[in-house]
Design goal:
The protein is mainly α. The chain has helices at about 5-20, 30-40, 60-80, 100-105, 115-120, 125-130, 135-155, 170-190. It contains 8 helices and no strands.
Length: about 200
């Protein structure tokens, strides 16, 4: 077996002695191999962003689509004058009188909701509650959606996700509207307002 040249053997012995003394860092072959394998597989350590990673999704258009109708509802509510009777404010928009109220003398589930929104927009909270008890709550929900949609439209972040949209967005408002309708009909009956004669 051929012997190692004297100069190379001396250099190897010096390097080993220096590593043992802590002068030179030891080579971790296994960790280096694992790191190279991870990089070849396309994985990256924390804090590193691959050059091919797509940009974050923008939610600006969704924010605009939600913001526009919310602003329309708030704007119309502020423009309308709440009817003192608690119903009929929607007639200022050219809509007809509630047929259920005319034919049967009882308000429909939506009766007073427009009046309630208009009253809240004008700071008449007691009148808003009397017109439709669920009106102030639904108005507050519209305000929250407006703020979240505006933030999403400006920043592009998924701000509306905090509301966890789902079926509750439809069921809860309808349920509140029917509860408010029942309360309106009951209080009106106790006060002798309903049924209309």
């Amino acid at each position: 077996m051929a012997s190692m040249p004297e100069g190379l053997e001396r250099q190897t012995m010096t390097t080993s002695a220096s590593r043992d003394a802590g002068i030179l860092p030891a080579l971790d072959v296994e960790n280096d191999s694992a790191s190279f394998s991870d990089q070849s597989d396309g994985t990256h350590s924390a804090g590193e962003t691959p050059a091919t990673q797509p940009p974050p999704r923008s939610f600006r258009w969704r924010g605009v689509l939600v913001l526009v109708p919310c602003l329309a509802v708030l704007g119309v509510s502020a423009w309308l004058r709440p009817d003192p009777s608690g119903v009929g404010t929607h007639e200022q928009l050219g809509l007809s009188t509630c047929s259920m109220l005319i034919d049967r003398g009882w308000p429909c589930p939506g009766c007073g909701l427009t009046t309630s929104f208009a009253a809240v927009a004008h700071g008449q909270f007691v009148a808003a509650f009397r017109a439709q008890a669920a009106g102030p709550l639904l108005f507050a929900l519209v305000v929250l959606l407006t703020v979240a949609a505006a933030a999403e439209a400006v920043t592009g972040r998924d701000c509306l996700r905090r509301f966890r949209p789902g079926w509750w967005c439809v069921i809860v408002p309808i349920l509140l509207m029917f509860i408010g309708w029942g309360l309106k009909a009951y209080l009106g009956w106790r006060a002798g307002i309903y049924p209309l004669r």
